[in-house]
Amino acid sequence: MLRTFVGKITRGFALFVPRRTTLSYFGEDKREVATLVPDDVKEGYFAVLAIKGEEPKRFIVELEYLTNPAFMGLLDQAREEYGFRQKGALAVPCLPQELQKILDA
């Protein structure tokens, strides 16, 4: 199950990393969405939001953290809490300090 989750995440990121812009147009009865990959998210990285606490904090994380057991635990929590339908930056249910500790280790 964990391997499937990592595979889906990796495939999903592969769709976003090489591209710099994605545009979907929708008319009056549809919504208009324009998604830009920010310049600080370079190839081999992805954006993560730590959303618990007073204010969410955004992190730019290397893809290799997808094999880190502590980070994988956060992804499991995100899957349980939010499912696979997140758009934009990946949101994880932890305090920014907790995610920083994982990234610094």
From TrEMBL:
Signal peptide: none annotated. Pfam families: Auxin_inducible. One of its GO terms (biological process) is response to auxin. InterPro entries: SAUR_fam. Belongs to the ARG7 family. PANTHER family: AUXIN-INDUCED PROTEIN-LIKE-RELATED (PTHR31374), SAUR-LIKE AUXIN-RESPONSIVE FAMILY PROTEIN (PTHR31374:SF188). This is Auxin-induced protein 6B. It comes from Senna tora. The lineage of its organism: Eukaryota, Viridiplantae, Streptophyta, Embryophyta, Tracheophyta.
